[in-house]
């Protein structure tokens, strides 16, 4: 299909089903989850997952143009389950072809892969629950709008997924609403997963020379790590490559003034980029289960055949986890994020939703920067050539 379209389908996905909701509400508020409050009431808890796989029907929404085919699971949190670059048949987001939950979420089941939108807490409380949605279509773009209410604090969100007729990116416009009469806290981290192997590299901006762990309790230089991090001693080790990280590890960029984060597969000559204005979206994070025995076991817990992945998370209003933002009664927070594939460019040095740049020669980089400024592309390149 080369024309712009949005449509609903019922598809069959092999699924390890979850158990029934626990009939007894969990009131214990001293529970800690992902470094913050683990209170969950009035959401129900699921604490059982089947070891048997069955074929299960799901209703999904497709957004498609001549470049991209995007599949959204409105029955599972509104997550982007698949994002295919049709020009080279490349899944630029990790496509998990089986629904194989683990008890990772605040309310129990959580699945790997796709793009998960985490709010108002990490691994979103309703990540395994359906969302309300509507679809729209005109000549210029197709739109899926999802809506979700946080029953714990009473806040609300809408996310508008836009695919344009002539653009090779998915635009997500988000509105977060505090509909209560009290200040409320929230975080927002988009959580794209990407497939990894010995040929892949995480692409952080060129001004990122240090990365921090959760809470900024520890740090290490990047991309060539020297010293101890997550109890592993590194010596000139390139930790932008999944193959070099043996244990479960998180790191978040320190003070980047660029708008992009991504991944590249040198064998397939293709990759992924997330784009958002760093003035409101400073968070750039990588998480991996690790290229070791423990990580390989978790690979098998979460998929049957699709192999390892990493998460390249993009935080809005924060550069670290579990930092939260507060918004006032009746306040609305609005922002946009972009997700796109690219190819044959390698280790990108700068990017916007309209232009992707990789230049190795510093003199050429200066010239390219001047051209980008003439085009009024609001991105910073000077730090990459200092």
Give a nutshell description of this structure:
This protein is mainly beta and 386 residues long. 6% of the residues lie in helices and 46% in strands. The strands form eight sheets. The protein has an eight-stranded antiparallel sheet with strand order 11-12-13-14-28-24-23-17, with no helix packed on it. It has a seven-stranded antiparallel sheet with strand order 10-16-26-25-22-18-19, with no helix packed on it.
How large is the share of residues in beta strands?
Answer: over 45%
- Name the average pLDDT: 91
In percent, how helical is the residue content?
Answer: under 10%
Rg, please?
20 Å
The main sheet orders its strands as 11-12-13-14-28-24-23-17
Largest sheet: 8 strands, antiparallel
Total helical segments: 2
Helix vs. strand class: mainly beta
Let me know the number of strands: 30
Enumerate the spans where pLDDT stays under 50 for 5 or more consecutive residues. Answer: 378-386
Instruction: Give the end-to-end Cα distance, rounded to a whole number of Å.
Output: 46 Å
Shape descriptor: globular
């Amino acid at each position: 299909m080369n024309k712009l379209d949005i449509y609903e389908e019922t598809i069959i996905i092999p699924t390890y089903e979850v158990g029934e909701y626990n009939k007894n509400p969990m009131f214990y508020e001293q529970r800690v989850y992902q470094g913050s409050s683990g209170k969950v009431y009035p959401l129900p808890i699921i604490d059982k997952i089947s070891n048997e796989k069955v074929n299960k029907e799901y209703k999904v929404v497709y957004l498609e143009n001549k470049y991209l085919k995007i599949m959204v699971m409105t029955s599972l949190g509104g997550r982007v389950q698949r994002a295919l670059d049709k020009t080279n048949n490349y899944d630029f987001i990790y496509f998990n072809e089986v629904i194989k939950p683990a008890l990772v979420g605040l309310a129990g089941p959580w699945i790997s892969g796709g793009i998960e939108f985490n709010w108002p807490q990490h691994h979103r409380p309703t990540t395994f629950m359906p969302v309300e949605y509507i679809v729209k279509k005109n000549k210029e773009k197709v739109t899926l709008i999802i809506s979700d209410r946080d029953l714990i604090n009473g806040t609300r969100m809408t996310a508008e997924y836009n695919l344009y007729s002539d653009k090779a990116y998915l635009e997500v416009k988000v509105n977060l609403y505090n509909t209560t009469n009290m200040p409320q806290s929230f975080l927002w981290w988009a959580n794209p997963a990407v497939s990894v192997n010995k040929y892949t590299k995480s692409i952080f901006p060129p001004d990122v020379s240090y990365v921090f762990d959760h809470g900024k309790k520890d740090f290490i230089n990047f991309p060539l790590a020297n010293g101890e991090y997550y109890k592993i001693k590194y010596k000139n080790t390139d930790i932008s490559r999944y193959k070099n990280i043996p244990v479960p590890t998180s790191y978040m960029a320190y003070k980047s003034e660029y708008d992009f984060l991504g991944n590249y597969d040198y064998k397939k000559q293709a990759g992924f980029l997330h784009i958002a204005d760093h003035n409101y979206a400073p968070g750039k994070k990588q998480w991996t289960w690790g290229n070791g025995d423990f990580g390989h076991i978790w690979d098998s817990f979460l998929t049957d055949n699709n192999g390892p992945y990493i998460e390249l998370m993009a935080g809005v209003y924060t550069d670290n986890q579990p930092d939260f933002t507060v918004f006032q009664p009746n306040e609305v927070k609005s922002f946009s994020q972009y997700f796109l594939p690219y190819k044959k460019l390698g280790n990108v040095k700068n990017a916007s939703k309209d232009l992707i740049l990789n230049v190795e020669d510093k003199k050429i980089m200066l010239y390219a920067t001047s051209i980008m400024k003439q085009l009024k592309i609001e991105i910073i390149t000077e730090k990459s050539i200092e």
